[in-house]
Design goal:
Alpha-Beta Plaits
Length: 55
């Protein structure tokens, strides 16, 4: 399973600040560095609009 940030991302920075592994990459929309991600779920739980999904 991988966590993905969808196109609905507002780049608000909440997931970036909450990720304990530094796996969130900034940009127009944020992305998850799959090699750094430990799939802890913190980003999913922190996203205020539900733009992060598990695939």
């Amino acid at each position: 399973m991988a966590y993905l940030i969808t196109d609905e991302c507002l780049a608000c920075g909440t997931c970036l600040e909450s990720c304990p592994y530094g796996a969130i990459l900034e940009g127009d929309i944020y992305r998850i560095d799959q090699e750094s991600c430990e799939k802890c779920g913190t980003c999913i739980n922190s996203c205020p609009i539900g733009a992060i999904i598990e695939e």
